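Q: A reviewer asked whether we had any structural model of the full assembly, not just the individual parts. We don't, so I'm hoping you can provide one. Inputs are below.
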Amino acid sequence: EVQLVESGGGLVEPGGSLRLSCAASGFTFSRYWMSWVRQAPGKGLEWVANIKEDGSEKHYVDSVKGRFTISRDNAKNSLYLQMNSLRAEDTAVYYCARYDGSPRSFEYWGQGSLVTVSA
Amino acid sequence: DIQMTQSPSTLSASVGDRVTITCRATQSISTWLAWYQQKPGKAPKVLIYKASTLESGVPSRFSGSGSGTEFSLTISSLQPADFATYYCHQYNSYPVTFGGGTKVEIK
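A: Here is a predicted structure for the entire assembly that you could use as a starting point for your response.
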């Protein structure tokens, strides 16, 4: 059974940093692109970042470029999102998702981790 | 960036109704479109991918159609478990984007 479990969310002040983790199990982690998708309270879904199987290729939504870094450790079956210079508008539930790309897109999702940016 | 516009944003319907949600892209995405269902406090669940392919385990009352810039999701006979929010999503090109969502409410 595929499982994705996020951790690391919490309350942080504007300008602060936070690192999210996602522990993957039930599939060969190193064979899949992985993603972060977020959802602000009461709002829709927004893709944040993708990373290739071996970490050699990364993509980001413009609003987080230069502030967020996606990474992975295939030996630990783990995905990460380092978030710096956080803003109030980054407040959201952050989902880890397995990205297939073809023919599917986001096939499996974690339960989400809430990040709140507030003074 | 490709923008995805869903309509309606809210839909009130009764059990047994046939409902259709539409999604329009600002440029052609071929059939690189997926539909997700999300219930409050839960992660999204994929229903349809490649515009019309039903995900394994998803009831056959769900169907998707379209290509290019116009797409639709149809629920042939609405069931109590179907009251949720639905999102379309294009994965033709980066940044991948989602529609604003359609909330299906009980009439």
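A: Points you may want to mention in the reply: The mean pLDDT of chain A is 97. The longest strand of chain A covers residues 18-25.
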